Amino acid sequence: MMLRALSADFLKIRKKGIWLLIFIAPIGLVAMQALNFGLRLDYLMKQYADDLWGGLIENISFFVPISLYLGVTLVSSLVAGVEHQMSSWKQLLALPISRISVFSAKFTLCFLVLCVSCLLLPIGTALLGLLLGFGAELPYLDLLRMGFASFAAVLPMLALQLWLSLTFRNQSMPVTLGVGAAVISPFTLQLPEWFPLNWPVYAFSGPHAWWFMVAGTLCGLVIMVMGMLHFNRKDVD
Amino acid sequence: MSEWIIETKGLTKKYRGRSAVDQLDLNIAKGDIYGFLGPNGAGKTTTIRMLLGLIQPTAGSISIFGQELNKHKLDILRRIGSLVEYPSYYGHLSAVDNLEAIRRILSVPKSRIDEVLEIVSLTSESRRPVKGFSLGMKQRLGIAASLLANPELLILDEPTNGLDPSGIHEIRELIKSMPEQYGITVLVSSHLLSEVEQMAGRVGIIREGRMVFQDTIRNLKEQASSEISLVVSDPEAALWLARDTGLGVAGTVKEGALVFPGMADKNVPLLVKRLVENGHDIYRVEEHRKSLEDIFMQVIGGGDRL
User: Fold this and answer.
1) Alpha-carbon distance A89 to A99, whole Å?
2) Contact (CB<8Å) A8/B105
3) N or C: which end of chain A has fewer CB within 10 A?
4) B62, B75, B90: best mutation site toward chain A, by most A Cβ within 10 Å?
5) Same domain, B218 and B230
6) Shortest Cα distance from B195 to chain A (angstroms)?
7) In this structure, are residues A36 and A132 in contact, taking their beta carbons and an 8 Å threshold?
């Protein structure tokens, strides 16, 4: 049942700019570093001489958490907006499909398209590294961790944003919250590492990165279930 | 009429203590077109949303196809097609893609899309984005979507709202054909009696959340009493004479005319003859029948209107 709703959802997000966002974000991050390394290649080559790939990944990873916060916010809002726009909820939820399936499908949709971004990022990074002549010994694990480790830690935010976006017809509240979180996230690094907005950073670069990935996944699941239960009971106007 | 497709008992929905729907008992028979009437804000849409499981009733029970709605919601919804208020659609998608998005959830064969587009005559426009459609076309697309799953029951909330006369006519003909051609029971709500009287068998009239009338259109019409009015040269004298005839008719003088409510046919010529014989000039003899609209206003007005 969930898969049927998911397949319908993939149809609905066509021409909504979601795919554009999914492709633009990782390409933009890589392009930014292409510019950075392109302008001062000699200096940076010297600085990262013992680990060229590590240097590139580190530079890109600075911007991954903030991009994820923005991505999670915008994707949730766009996915929910498809139904809010012409108040399609009353039509969708009067179909013979459980609300749990509808909610799960929306969550899965957001999760999958964001995974595409997280996959495009290492591919783009690898291409850039190869182009700059960093050698063919690709650090595969680190490349993949760059996107996906932080994504796991940002799942609670995805669950929360999707819940809010689905609940409120007016998207300004959830979008403000999400963008606000993205904007302040670099500054909260001065707070202890357990502070939730810091999880994406420590899930990639901390001494016990696994903790934050696991905590993010579990916390995300809990919030998703809460959102699902609320969605299952709420009145549809 | 023992088999009810929809039966509600004591259905109530309260918002912050105010009852939007209050103790509603709805009975809809199989194969009927049921007109659900009431002024704006009377609780029609709230009732329909409860029937579709979109909102939870505060109290009361809903049984559709003989099953409890809250226990067999998905089984029941599988057999219902619905259109709630203004049309729902995905503007950036074409008519076909809109239906496809719904079809994927219903998992009915793809050929159904062409069939329902044919029924609502949208086949030629099916590839255009829906945001460019006229309201009537969007409404027809909504009906097409509601027919996609071959429903046994169609619930249409104000399907003709905002349409022009030809659009209204088109939708009305479409609805009328449903029970005949496809054996579908239809619940159609409206705030206009005139719109429903031409298609519905039974009507329910709701006012401030309460059912104030539920019966056949024919019985509603029978409530329409008629009165005979006579315009004569000297109404006052004629009235005295009429009371004196022994016909037992009680009339009044209203705006210079004699008015006799509910007068039997056989008494009319007797009265006229008597008046003529006594030298009264009779200019006009008229029958006034209350229109359904008058009765509707009377029923929904309930006497406590300002």
Assistant:
1) 11
2) yes
3) C
4) B90
5) no
6) 24
7) no
Contact criterion met (CB < 8 Å) for A88 and B102? no
- Chain B contact set for A18 (CB, 8 A): none
Q: Is residue B97 part of a domain?
A: no
d(C-alpha A164, C-alpha A158), whole Å: 10
| Segments in chain B below pLDDT 70 | 1-2, 223-225, 246-248, 302-306
Q: What dihedral angle (degrees, nearest 10) is formed by the CA atoms of B176, B180, B186, B191? A: 20
CB contact under 8 A, B84 and A90: yes
Residue B248 pLDDT: 67
- Decide: B237 and B243 in contact? Cβ < 8 Å: no
Instruction: Please provide the average confidence, as pLDDT, over all residues in chain A.
Output: 92
Question: What was the pLDDT predicted at A194?
Answer: 87
Are the CB atoms for B202 and B175 separated by under 8 Å?
Answer: no
Q: Are residues B67 and B16 in the same domain?
A: yes
Say whether both B73 and B156 belong to one domain: yes
Q: Which domain holds residue A218?
A: 2-233
Which pLDDT tens digit goes with each residue over B49-76?
Answer: 999 999 999 999 999 999 999 999 999 9
Among A4, A10, A14, A95, the residue to mutate for chain B (most B Cβ within 10 A): A95
B18 and B61 part of one domain: yes
For the segment A156-183, what is each residue's pLDDT rounded down to a tens digit? Answer: 999 999 999 999 999 999 999 999 999 9
Q: Is the Cβ of A97 closer than 8 Å to some Cβ of chain B?
A: yes
- A182 is written with which tokens? 């993205």
Number of folded domains in chain A? 1
User: Is some CB atom of chain B closer than 8 A to the CB atom of A137?
Assistant: no
Q: For residue B105, give the nearest of A4, A82, A233 by CB distance.
A: A4
* DSSP structure class, residue B181: I
- pLDDT tens by residue, B198-239: 888 899 999 888 988 888 888 877 766 678 888 988 888 888
Q: Is the pLDDT of residue A51 over 50?
A: yes
- The verdict on residue B98 lying in a domain is no
Tell me if chain A has a CB within 8 Å of the CB of B288. Answer: no
B68 and B196 together in one domain: yes
The pLDDT score that the predictor gives to residue B181 is 87
Residue B254's domain comprises 226-289
